[in-house]
Amino acid sequence: MSTVRTRFAPSPTGYMHIGGMRTALFNWLWARHNGGQFILRIDDTDQERNISAALGPILQAFKWLGLDWDEGPEVGGEHGPYFQSERNDLYRSAVDQLLAEGKAYRCYETPEQIQADREAAEKEKRNFLNLRRSLELTESEKEQYEAEGRPSVVRLLVPRDQKIQIDDAVRGHVEFDAGLMPDPVILRGNGTPLYNLATVIDDAQMQITHVIRAEEHLSNTPVQVLIYQALGYELPQFAHIPFVAAPGGKEKLSKRKLDKYRKSPQFKKMFDKAEAVFPRIGLENADGLDPVMVEYYEKIGYLPEAILNALARLGWSLDDKTEIMSLDTIVENFTLDRIVKAAAGLDPDKLLSFQAHWMNQLSLDEKVAHCGPYLEKAGLVKNAADPETSQRISQVIVGMEDRLKIASDILDFDEFFVADDELEYDPKAFKKRIRKATDAVPLLEKVKNELAQTSDFSAAGLDKLLHDFVEAEGIGMGQIIHALRVAVSGKGTGIGMFDCLAILGKESCVRRIDRAIALSQSE
Ligand code: GLU
Description:
One of its GO terms (molecular function) is glutamate-tRNA ligase activity. This is Glutamate--tRNA ligase. Keywords: Aminoacyl-tRNA synthetase, ATP-binding, Coiled coil, Cytoplasm, Ligase, Nucleotide-binding, Protein biosynthesis. The protein is mainly α. Helices cover 47% and strands 9% of the residues. The protein is built from 20 helices and eleven strands. It has helices at 18-33, 51-65, 88-100, 111-123, 139-148, 195-205, 221-230, 258-263, 265-277, 294-300, 304-312, 327-333, 348-360, 364-377, 387-400, 427-435, 440-453, 459-473, 478-489, 497-522, and strands spanning 5-8, 37-40, 104-107, 153-156, 163-168, 172-177, 185-187, 210-214, 237-241, 244-245, 344-345. The longest helix has 26 residues, at 497-522. The radius of gyration is 32 Å and the shape is elongated. The mean pLDDT is 96.
């Protein structure tokens, strides 16, 4: 058997769609599973925009996830060029061959004429087929049309007596009746190729053995099969995979529906998170990044392992029960026969649970390395690698326990990184726990004095100190602990109280309690 060669052929749109990434991943997995090659080809025939700007985020998504390509942009290869815009000569010569062999024809019919034919067919309730009037033209009539500058396109001459059979690796056996197919345009009037033509020529010349792509292309496949046959190329194995659906829905996940997603209960958390995080790390226009884009996950602090795991599970399963899988495990087990036919919905909660798992697998140092840049970008620390800073980040991460899921979650614990006189107090918590709570201020004053005097500021030492304190005062722990938390952290919730005090250290705790007391008396 020949080497497995798969490809992903994105149009440069300026962003990488998470559903498209799943298609790319399946192609990559199948190539890697078989020790074959994965090719990246750029479908830029219809592009007027700046290619490198539109392609950048797509290549970055592959690099971030660690999905390498054996041939394509930046790496080259033996079957290039890998940009369709640079392959026009190849398309033109294939079309010339088809014209010379009578398998395609130049069609001079006007759009009006074709529209009239369509309407006539509709009226008589028959299927529309091209009347192929241009085939009747004599050479001199054609020359005259050309001399007049009459517009024309090239159409494939569909062999109407054929049944087109496709054995799709996912959809199974599919048949199409060529007798019902109009002659598709393969070359536009301006000499540019249509998708179906360019794709077949590229796939054949790049020796692609498996075309794994979104199911919406199944309807293009019969035309492509006819082009393969007309050009004498061997057919690849097709695998049309189900689309990635929006959370909880059956509709294809689409950037056009963002307004709807923003309000959907499943997606809302992701948008809220974006709004909370992106402006803080200097991405003012958080709207520019949304959960349909791979870049959203990278920028907000997901791990490639989590995204790859989640994407692999969108429409493929190892054994109907295993959820957590490393990329190596997926590569080892990936086969096309375990791709499902039904659309798979992106599930933000599930994605987060994969992320939580993979975050948990990291060593403390690795976690620090992931979180540090967020603190730097938010201006909370100058240099996360500085030993003292990195020590504090480690302590906070340890204190966060499983509250650290996404790297940017560290920003929710900014109380450990702001200066004492810049700590902000959550007004609600402050009112409830300090201003309105019985004896909160005198108790804070007393406990502050104890804290100032102790020589053991470890979490265990503080645990003992506070227990002794409540006993001596004859109060419950609840009567001091909430006020103390708000006073030192500004917030009503956070990491374990004794850890919190220990990380902040004596000086900060004393200063912050003083500030809270002053604040409660100032208004
Ligand atoms: N550029 C096409 C797309 O993004 C490629 C389709 C194909 O894989 O044939 O839909």
